[in-house]
Design goal:
This protein is mostly helical. The protein contains 18 helices and three strands.
């Protein structure tokens, strides 16, 4: 009996050892399998992520979205990937899809403060891209409630105030957060002045324009509109002096001021003074000739156009006016050819993004930069 018990005890011991060995081997196998699977997934994630980055570099947005979506499937917790996917949809102009992806991240549990701030900023950018400025402001303010010192959120909120032409708030935020950009501050005061002017509050408009000029004496927009205020006051002399000053400050915008000089005698005197002091400036020559042409002094205008042409300047509008002035001595087909189409003689091109318009702008509608419009004579 004792022999049987000993045998059974030995048997149980061997069984336990074998079982432990088997379980250890099984766990080791499962651990190695899991590790290999994880390494395989990590490798696939890395490959998809790298491919996505390469597609972004190649500006292939669709392929980048495909690869990042594949990366997100392999690891749903990769918040940065989802943010990137949303941003790519925004780049494509699919704002609704961008918003769906970005907003879905806000309901995730355990979202860190930094990531929540980043998501708020991206949702704000989505709304800004869609032109929904009030919603954009809301999310940028949400971001600032998490981190009141966040420079990106401050800058974006300020820019949205500019986008929405909320100049009073733009002024407040500019003073708080933007340092050293006096020319922009002058433009903001000018825009506020224009609003007051349109409301016929000429006293407040004048104060705003004067603040703009005090901050930046070269702010030609403020200088010209200050002349408009003087004209409303009936002080014609001051108005004309103001507009003449604007011509000297920025000759490439002299046409804006010269067109306001309704008194023909003063216009002639101003043109003479400009031509004496800036006889080689192509803008002064061109705009002076245009105004002389408008008041019927064709020969003087043609003389200036000839000077510009001899200096190498080519302009369809100059040629058209030349033909119109000499039409009595030209064949009918030339007159018909040159007069059947009216074209603008000025084009404003943004030196930052290339945006082009026949209408003057001080803040580019596309890239939103101030004072980037180059004047081209065509």
């Amino acid at each position: 009996m004792n022999l049987d018990l000993g045998f059974l005890t030995q048997y149980k011991f061997v069984f336990i050892v074998l079982l432990a060995f088997f379980l250890g081997a099984l766990f080791s196998y499962l651990w190695i399998l899991t590790k290999q699977r994880k390494e395989k997934i990590d490798k696939k994630k890395l490959e998809s992520y790298v491919k996505g980055i390469n597609y972004i570099i190649e500006d292939n947005t669709d392929k980048a979205i495909e690869e990042f979506t594949e990366t997100a499937k392999l690891d749903p917790d990769l918040i940065d990937i989802y943010i990137s996917i949303g941003n790519l949809f925004r780049k494509k102009g699919e704002i609704n899809r961008a918003l769906i992806i970005h907003k879905s991240l806000l309901v995730r549990p355990h979202l860190s403060k930094n990531k929540k701030l980043e998501v708020y900023i991206n949702i704000g950018v989505d709304y800004r891209k869609a032109g929904l400025y009030d919603r954009a402001k809301e999310y940028f303010k949400n971001a600032l409630s998490i981190d009141p010192k966040n420079a990106q959120a401050k800058k974006l909120l300020y820019e949205v105030y500019e986008d929405s032409k909320d100049w009073e708030n733009a002024l407040i935020w500019h003073k708080r957060f933007v340092k050293g950009d006096n020319h922009i501050l002058a433009h903001i005061y000018t825009e506020i002045g224009k609003e007051r002017f349109s409301e016929k509050d000429f006293d407040k408009a004048k104060k705003s324009f004067e603040k703009a000029v005090k901050i930046d004496k070269d702010c030609v927009d403020a200088q010209i509109h200050l002349g408009d205020v003087y004209m409303q006051y009936g002080d014609v002399e001051k108005a004309y002096m103001q507009w003449k000053k604007a011509c000297f400050i920025k000759p490439e915008l002299a046409n804006i001021a010269l067109k306001r000089l309704n008194d023909t005698d003063i216009l002639r005197k101003t043109i003479v003074e400009l031509l004496v002091k800036m006889k080689d400036n192509k803008y002064i020559l061109f705009f002076s000739a245009n105004q002389l042409y408008e008041i019927g002094e064709f020969e003087k205008a043609i003389s200036i156009y000839k000077k510009l042409m001899s200096s190498g300047m080519k302009s369809y509008s100059m040629l058209r006016k030349f033909v119109d002035a000499k039409k009595e001595n030209l064949p009918d087909f030339i007159i018909t050819f040159m007069s059947d189409e009216q074209r603008n003689d000025i084009k404003y091109v943004c030196i930052n993004c290339g945006y082009s318009s026949s209408t003057l702008y001080f803040r580019c509608p596309k890239c939103r930069k101030w004072d980037t419009a180059k004047v081209e004579l065509i």
